[in-house]
Each structure stands twice: as structure tokens, then as C-alpha cells.
Amino acid sequence: MKAALRNNGLSLFFGLIFLLALLGQGLTGHALFNEEQLSAGLDEISLGQYLTSSSFAVDVSENWQSEYLQFLLYITATIWLVQRGSPESKELHKTGLESDKQQLVAEYSNAKSPAWARARGWRLTVFSNSLGATMGLIFVLSWLVQSIAGNSAYNEEQLSNFQQPAAWAEYVASAEFWNRTLQNWQSEFLAVGSMVVLAIYLRQRGSPESKPVGSAHDDTGATG
């Protein structure tokens, strides 16, 4: 048990704090929603009703899609783009997809290589791009959920104010939708860009997201 906890500590830690944060969001969101209901002269709803509502779904999904967009762009951009001195970048001479020998695929694979990495053809192509493709798929699905739930929540508000509801296509093209979306995107892009640049000059001892403390500022691709 101790070995399992140690070997999976990072994923278990983030999984736990994710669930706690999601629970906290649900509880505080429910309280805030009911405050708004009462101020509008409407009935309160139960926690279960709130957690299955479009209001909760849009708040959760709009954050998820921005996070997975961040990772999708970072994973794919770092194939070709480098940043001198950053541990978040590949070494300056390693731009591009790299050779089969560098990637340990096909005839250059070893006994521990995944089966699809040892193959040629479509299986190798799929496996070689599986991380970016999965991140992209989650982003698209989260964005779709956000747009559908956001449209539903928007129309509920419109109807409560005796205004005309909007079709999905109208909502997706609206300032309401893109204002919510871009608020999340800009913060994610700023955070990633800051990490890339700050890690050139700053250190965190023992972290693989940082260069070794004594590394030169222009060392690129080094991790501690």
C-alpha cells in the first residue's frame, strides 16, 4: 500500500484536491444560486437540482475546456517552438518531430516500448499523436458541453426576464458566450507564458518543472 501511494502520489494528490475543489464549487455555487433565487422572489432549489442544472454545468465545463485547450496548444506548440533557457522547452537543436531513433520507435524500440511504438503504419501514427489528440478531443467535448449548457442557462435567464430566448447558433456567436470563453483563455495563456519565461531565471529545488538550481540561465531543456 505504501509503495502504491508513493508511486502514484502525484496523480492521487491532484485527484483528491480536484474532487474537494469540485465539491466546494458545488456547495458555494448552490448557496449563491439560491441567494439569487430569493432576491428575485423565486423558490430555492435543492443541491441535487443545482448539480444537475445548466448553471453548474456551464461553470464547470468552461473551465475544463480552457484547461485542455492550454495543454493541447502547449503539447503541439513545443514540437516546433523553443525558448532559450527554459526547462519548459526542448533543446534548441531538437525542433520538429525528431528521428525514429530519438523517439525509440519501430526498429529502434526496446523490450519495454509499448506495442504500438514497435509497429509501423497507422498504429504508430495514432500512438505517436495520441496525447495531443486526446487533449484535443476533451477540449472539443468540453467546449460543446459549455455551449449547450450555457445556451440553456442563458435562455432561462432570458425567459425569467420576459425576453426572447436564443438558438444555440445565436448563442455561440454572441458576446455573452465569447466573453465567458475568452476570460478563461487569456488567463491560461498568461499562466503558461509566465511559466515558460520565469523558469528561465527562477528555480524550485527538486522540481522537474525547474532547472537545477546551479544551472546557467541560458541552459535550455534541463530539468531538476
How would you characterize the overall build of this protein?
The chain is mainly α and 224 residues long. The protein has 2 domains: 1-52; 54-91 and 132-224, no CATH class. The protein is built from 10 helices and no strands. Helix 4 runs antiparallel to helix 8 (130-160) and helix 4 (54-80) packs across helix 10 (175-201). It is elongated and about 65 Å long. The two termini are 28 Å apart. The model has no long low-confidence stretch (mean pLDDT 92).
Q: Between the first and last Cα atoms, what is the distance in angstroms?
A: 28 Å
- Outline: elongated
How many extended strands?
0
Q: What value does the average pLDDT take?
A: 92
Number of structural domains: 2
Largest sheet: none
Helix count from the secondary structure assignment: 10
- Point out poorly predicted stretches: none
* Helicity, as a percent range: 55-70%
Structural class based on helices, strands and sheet pairing: mainly alpha
State Rg: 23 Å
- Written as H for each helix and E for each strand, in order along the chain, the element string is HHHHHHHHHH
- Beta-strand portion reads under 5%
